[in-house]
Description:
This protein is 51% helix and 17% strand. It is an alpha+beta fold. It has 4 domains: 14-265, Periplasmic binding protein-like II (D-Maltodextrin-Binding Protein, domain 2, 3-Layer(aba) Sandwich); 355-459, Beta-Lactamase; 477-617, Alpha-Beta Plaits, CATH 3.30.70; 635-799, Orthogonal Bundle (Hypothetical protein af1432). The strands form 5 sheets. Strands 1, 5, 6, 7, 8, 9, 10, 11, 12 and 13 form a 10-stranded mixed sheet that branches. A 5-stranded antiparallel sheet has the order 15-14-18-17-16, sandwiched between helices. A 4-stranded antiparallel sheet has the order 20-21-19-24, sandwiched between helices. Strand 3 and strand 4 (68-69) form a beta hairpin. Helix 2 runs antiparallel to helix 9 (253-261), helix 17 (507-514) runs antiparallel to helix 18 and helix 22 packs across helix 26. The model is unreliable at 1-24 and 26-43 (pLDDT under 50). Residues 616-804 form the HD-GYP domain. Residues 302-350 form a coiled coil.
Amino acid sequence: xxxxxxxxxxxxxxxxxxxxxxxxxxxxxxxxxxxxxxxxxxxxxxxxxxxxxxxxxxxxxxxxxxxxxxxxxxxxxxxxxxxxxxxxxxxxxxxxxxxxxxxxxxxxxxxxxxxxxxxxxxxxxxxxxxxxxxxxxxxxxxxxxxxxxxxxxxxxxxxxxxxxxxxxxxxxxxxxxxxxxxxxxxxxxxxxxxxxxxxxxxxxxxxxxxxxxxxxxxxxxxxxxxxxxxxxxxxxxxxxxxxxxxxxxxxxxxxxxxxxxxxxxxxxxxxxxxxxxxxxxxxxxxxxxxxxxxxxxxxxxxxxxxxxxxxxxxxxxxxxxxxxxxxxxxxxxxxxxxxxxxxxxxxxxxxxxxxxxxxxxxxxxxxxxxxxxxxxxxxxxxxxxxxxxxxxxxxxxxxxxxxxxxxxxxxxxxxxxxxxxxxxxxxxxxxxxxxxxxxxxxxxxxxxxxxxxxxxxxxxxxxxxxxxxxxxxxxxxxxxxxxxxxxxxxxxxxxxxxxxxxxxxxxxxxxxxxxxxxxxxxxxxxxxxxxxxxxxxxxxxxxxxxxxxxxxxxxxxxxxxxxxxxxxxxxxxxxxxxxxxxxxxxxxxxxxxxxxxxxxxxxxxxxxxxxxxxxxxxxxxxxxxxxxxxxxxxxxxxxxxxxxxxxxxxxxxxxxxxxxxxxxxxxxxxxxxxxxxxxxxxxxxxxxxxxxxxxxxxxxxxxxxxxxxxxxxxxxxxxxxxxxxxxxxxxxxxxxxxxxxxxxxxxxxxxxxxxxxxxxxxxxxxxxxxxxxxxxxxxxxxxxxxxxxxxxxxxxxxxxxxxx
Length: 804
């Protein structure tokens, strides 16, 4: 459906007022008698369900309170009141509402455009408006003819009559189907489509409501009647709808509804404007006529007086005028000669400037194909000096087929007096160059030729075309290509057609831990495995961040399973930064022509997600271990430090009577508390001297990085929070969240004390290590500011067993 201009129903002449009322009274009693005396049946209705499009203002939509409203909705309700019917309104997506009508879930649709195809499917009421579609484009665009959009991208509403009309025009339009008019207009405003082909009135309504910078092109596409629709077996419903409509027109209520909802969008009638301001126009025209008469009269009087004055000295002035005329003629001729010389000089200068500015090579040919002249602003673009061309034939410089083509085009240009244009290739120093030749007739014997190097433009065009259908990272096809290929391959000769979905597991974890460059390497490796494992006729594409699709004509579910096992075996032997590559697969095959390819696609995707649920937990656990292994290889000191912190945390938790589960938890957190350092530059981690302010800020990121890594594992979410908080301070000046006091998790407070103590007694190249007693005094000095005071005292006395 699309936006249209509505034309109100013309009012009846007053002379037919009585007859019309009499007709509607008879019709009303006929309908009433039909309902009273007809035998009870399934079609004897007191309540009817009427549906319409959910996103179609001002015809049908939901208001700010979520209530159905609009011209179609209010008209349906008014018809129900007129016919003493209970009307229920149902609004939904347009395709859903049409299906509901065909399935018998609703009795009628309150607004549908008539067409020969639809009249074969539905029965229509008398029209309640006449509408037309239009194209909407960005501000500043202006179309004069529909043919100007040939090859453009047009957003349309799915199953809409304007979309049907545009598809029938055979203009090679690329259609982008959406569910409603707003989405179609949004695609144009965001630059994803050139135009939106929708009904004009809903389009204007939505542009005003959402302040979109779009304008209609006023092409009036496919003017059509807008009416209510029912299924062929619901003729009694159609009779009641038509009867109610006529009653509303007779009472004037239809016109009130029309003026309220649609009249504000119509252009004013010029005849009504003329009638409204007729006296002003008459007065203005009368004044203009009077002024014109006055001017004519004054001119006449002035001419009479002038003739009288001139007649006195006619003979004396005749000779003088003759002399003056001769002198003026000589002066004019002299001025014209000077002007012609100046114009000729300026023209020559202009032509020289144009030739110097042109990037083209200019040739002048005669009708036999001989070079008469040659010019190039940069003579390096010529293979020979300009003088070498003069008097030579085309065949002396151009290859055989090219010279024949050029000579033929020269003769056509002279014969038809029209520009001739063609492209040709030349191989220069083993490199192919593409040129464009334009030949324009100069006279009956000569032709001007302009040769331009268009190699870079063609290469850029080829690159753009390549990127429009390929993924830039992996070189595989992209989602746009796979959607077109899916539509192209969905034919009986390609059955069975198998769709295999693949998802790289743990990509976010890899990106958070090792950086996006490693994640990109994992994606490119996965792409290579998928592509190398497939046959030439099988299409492999990357359709999302970590998702791939394989379209395999001729593959059944059984053969697809074998292909998947081959790819999984290759993954088992592939590692990126010590992380084993893992891909989850799902597949399904279309084996019958009746099967819906989109359902097959969805089945493959659902199967893949189910497999991913089982494979992901073990992969993430392996990845965590691989991350820690890599961290310890980068900084061997971290492994010993993490082990000591873990032991101190367990001893502290044991004294505090932690349960076995919580003891294991804090043991693990102690080992993993610095896992976020995997993303910190190795040079900073192993720096022998004191860190700079910038380096310290980089180090301070490791709690958040560790939280991001661990929070991806379902059974480590609480531990991730402890890692995030282990550098918070008791006084609230810590990082990253500035938590204070007991808002800091207990486990994080324990880790903070154990971490600080081990750092103080450990070896550092930039300072001397402290003894256990000295470290204990440092802890005590910062109790109540940096550390939990009670935990600090317990740690010193019970864990370190140092008397205070």
